[in-house]
Amino acid sequence: MFTNTLNRKKFPRAIVFFTCFVTAVPAYSSGADADPLKELSKPRSVVNIGAGQLFNDNARFGQYTGLRNEGPYGIFNVDIAKRYDDTGTWFKLLGRNLGLQNRDVRFEHSKQGKWGYVIDYSQTPRYEPFTVNTAVTGIGTTDPHIPDTRTPGNPAQLSTERQSIGFSFNQFLPGNLEFNLHFRNEEKDGSRIFGRGNRLGEPRLSGFDGRPSPRAVGGYEFIPEPINSTIRIFGASLDYVGKDLQLSGGYYGTMYNNKNALLTPTGGSTVGGIFSPSQYAPIALAPDNESHQGFLSGGYSFAPTTRGTFKVAYTRATQTDSFSPGLLTAPGIGANLGGRIDTVLAQTGLTARPLQKLSINTNFRFEDRDDKTPVRFYNPMATFHDLNGNTWNGLNNPRSFRTITSKFEANYTLPHNFRLIGGIDYEHRDRTGTATNTSHRFRTDELFYRAELRRSLSDTITGTISYIHSDRFGSSFLTNTTASGASFFNLIAPSNLADRSRDKVRFLANWDPIDSLSIQVSIDESIDDYGQRPGSDLGLRKGSARNYSLDATYIFSERLQATAWFSRNETHIDQASRNAITDNGIREIWGSNLHNIGTSVGMEVTAKPTDKLETGANFMFADYTDKFNQKVSLEPQVNIVPNISTQYSSLRLFARYDIRKNLGVRLDYILDHFKTNEWTWTGWRYTDGTTLTQNNNQMVNFAFLSVLYSWQ
Amino acid sequence: MLTIIKIRQIAVPGLLAFILAFIIAVLPQPVSSAELDDDDDDPPQDLILRGDGKCTACHDENSDNPILAIGKTKHGTTADHRTPTCTSCHGDGGSHEDSPDKALMPQRTFGKKSVNSIEDRNSACLACHQGGKRMHWPGSTHANRDVACTSCHTIHTDQDKVRNRNTQPEVCFNCHKEMRQLINRPYRHPIREGKVICSDCHNPHGSAGPSKMVRDSINDTCYTCHMEKRGPFVYNHPPVQENCAICHNPHGTTAPNLLRTRSPFLCQQCHEPNTHQGSSGTLTGAYARNTLARGCANCHTQVHGSNMPENIHNESVFQR
């Protein structure tokens, strides 16, 4: 296997040498030639081994594969399957990307219909696409040191990596029973972008009692978050599968363990006194937590066309990670949060056909997520004014949710293979909570009405046209107040709570004008109209989404076929907010029309010019544009948010030549292009001097040559 | 340059796979009964499945509908007494067999020109594959939208595209075309790389959760990988507890961190325009802090919740 430790200049020669060596090795004859039936009907195993050269450094193409730095990489895949026909025993080994950093291995050993087990391993890197240029030291630790003034830094690459190992086992038991067991352990390590900040400076307006005004400049520091945690998921179930009745009952458990409980940065800016960034330490990291669920689900066929299903589950999730010693906590809050959430789920569904042409489908789901975390007085200082002049109650804020959804759908068969479908869905949500700095309502209800005409059995054309209308409404919004009872703003209906009317139409058609040509058209459009708080027109106002797609597949011959597609997606959000008090004392209402437009085209051609040669090409191009369209009158010159445009294109070519029946050579080539004018980090410099940069035009070439060897 | 640790990370799984491959390859395979059969061709000899002789007499690999590859699959494991015969799925082929030009089709077919109802076609699969992960198929969105099992699954092959992590999304995109666009956006899950695939989050056969989530809720599904977001925390951010999808689009976005919209616009869809919260987007001046870099999260770093019990600088503002 090649690694990128090889001398780059010598690498192309190494590929050639390797390929010649493997192809020159005499073929192992498995006897397949002597038995065509075996060749056609017995499991086949393949090993694919080779090497490739990445010709360009990049950040995007290799974000999740590790193919980031120019140089050689190993290609190694295995797909091995062996079956003992007399016993039905299988051995399967699947290894994917074994020469790269995103490798998977899956081993399965089973006696079909008796027992089986699977062991798997997966490695997933994630490289931050932006390069960090920083003088912060201690990256990846819980005690990084932050320069107290702007300091030039060095490039650093943040990344995380997940490595998981899983095991599962199943055993068939007498009486149509099956026992299942599964366990997964995933380690995640690395570091990611994080930080702290606050606004600083002298007050410019009266009434702020020495606190920085909203327009004050800030102090912002780059603090990489260290990642070192473990996720464990495990469970067992006993399943019964009878002719009419099926049941599955068992246990599902999860555990999260974070080895970094607290981030304790040292250094940092002291400019700003008690509001300076350095005062924001230590910083709590994600706490350990776990959940345990018992469940029972099942299905029963009352009659050939009448079937019911259900699931009931009870879950207890807890978070009792100890608060780090040394923290200044209020009296009486205990050593940990004592977090506990109990969730009850009950779901049932029924499908039936009371008449030959009429079928119905109903579903009811109840979920009660009861947050039983004790409420304690965490913050005795909450009654003092904060930066914005507000006061708070100092209590933690557990939230409980109860959701009830019910669905009813009727499906009636019409002449000429048409079917008419009508449905009504209802969703009811109860939420606990208080109204403080955001608006709150205890209840929302949403009603959906759906009508659909479908033609699903036809030689040449099938399709669906549907219309959905929904209305969301709910209880009155609470009046937002601070802890002292002072009135707060009551202007925004949050996006998940706001009244909303939605209309959606959808059209999907499959047309096969001739045997060799298949065309698919998909169009959908939805329009949202949001309600606001009484007396306000701020927040979400309107939204829309449109999707158009056209796909075509043409089969020129058994040896040549092509697929082409086009998709366009447009979303639009109209929303408004209000600026802070400016020097002229005016709070200006401003709006934005947020547009997101995506256009993609793709084409794929596969050809087999000869019995030994197979080739293919796959091309894809996508263009994404975000438009922000702000309407700001007071200071339009500083309130321009430029459009962001990103193009992504990919060309993949391959050619495979079979030297012998069980030996082939494959050449792959990938051209990947990422181009953007994204300004997320452009012009941003942390107070400590850290900047983040990326190459806005990344062109990558990756070519690899591999050998495929197969046997039975 | 790779470090020793990295080389070990690459080498160990590769070596393990290679050793296992070698062991499996050299294990002796008993000769099957089929291989011992002589070329006695009257009546037609069963080649793979019980009673398949009258089918395989015509449907070899040279026919328009080759079927022998089913022998490579678990359906072709005849030692398992549960495996089907041809007629288990296709019904009686008597009229088809007797039809001189094969104009009459078997009782049940699954191709594009099938005249069997979707329900009838699926009943062939559900006769065995009921329960377990398919418990909630009846009444599921796919069942109600006339999706046939064979719309996604290919039976007569050992390479079912929808069960391969590299190719599964292509199958789903045949209908879910908008997703084809989303997965290529600048901020995305590693779907193209096959590290996160549709069925990691969705059970296409139906579930007790919304949107066919593999767990009972959207959040519970997200927690299978992002368990650090579960809390509960001393200070909870209510939408985080309610539904991750209020702020995130897991299929891909043009805003960082899979956010539906950039800061400050996303945050302003809920937050009152108290002071700086209502500022318009800008790349210059003091309020650039709300738009550039991590946006509002430049200061409110703990947006998923804070478990800091200390009473300084953290009251409902998620700064520590």
From TrEMBL, chain A:
N-terminal signal peptide: 1-34
NCBIfam families, A to Z: OMP_MtrB_PioB (TIGR03509)
Sorted UniProt keywords: Signal
Species lineage: Bacteria, Pseudomonadati, Pseudomonadota, Betaproteobacteria, Nitrosomonadales
InterPro entries (alphabetical): Decahaem-assoc_OM_MtrB/PioB
Keyword Isomerase: no
UniProt keyword Signal, yes or no: yes
The protein's name: MtrB/PioB family decaheme-associated outer membrane protein
Protein species of origin: Nitrosomonas oligotropha
Pfam family of the protein (one): MtrB_PioB
TrEMBL record, chain B:
Domain Cytochrome c-type protein NrfB-like span(s) in chain numbering: 86-164
A Pfam family per the record: Paired_CXXCH_1
Gene Ontology MF, one: oxidoreductase activity
Source organism (scientific name): Nitrosomonas oligotropha
Region listing for Disordered, in residue ranges: 74-105
Coiled-coil parts of chain: none
Domain of life: Bacteria
Domain Doubled CXXCH motif: start-end pairs: 189-230, 237-274
Keyword annotations from UniProtKB, A to Z: Signal
InterPro entries reported for this sequence: Cytochrom_c_NrfB-like_dom, Decahaem_cyt-c_DmsE, Multihaem_cyt_sf, Multiheme_Cytochr_ET, Paired_CXXCH_1
Keyword Transport among UniProt keywords: no
Name by which UniProt lists this protein: DmsE family decaheme c-type cytochrome
Keyword field contains Signal: yes
Transmembrane spans: none
